[in-house]
């Protein structure tokens, strides 16, 4: 697990808690999409943005934001 280092407003380093990278699969543990598998498209400090699938009529991706504690990384 590679941790990214960033600096907070006090100049101290803090480690990112993200343990996933782009294009990895996760399973959502809580909320409306509980149990769904999704692909990570963006990693943030406290959350990830995932793609759940495509809307059939519009052809647009279904995206949602998930907090790091609310998903489980899946093995490939």
UniProtKB/TrEMBL annotation:
SUPFAM superfamilies, per the entry: Translation proteins SH3-like domain
InterPro entries: DUF2187, Rib_uL2_dom2, Translation_prot_SH3-like_sf
Pfam families in the cross-refs: DUF2187
Gene3D superfamilies linked to this entry: 2.30.30.30
Organism superkingdom: Bacteria
Name of protein: DUF2187 domain-containing protein
Natural source organism: Bacillus salipaludis
């Amino acid at each position: 697990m590679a941790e990214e280092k960033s600096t907070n407003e006090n100049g101290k380093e803090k480690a990112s808690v993200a343990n996933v990278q782009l294009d990895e699969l996760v399973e959502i543990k809580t909320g409306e999409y509980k149990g769904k598998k999704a692909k990570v498209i963006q990693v943030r400090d406290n959350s990830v943005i995932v793609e759940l699938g495509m809307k059939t009529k519009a052809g647009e991706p279904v995206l949602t934001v998930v907090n790091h504690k609310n998903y489980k990384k899946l093995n490939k």
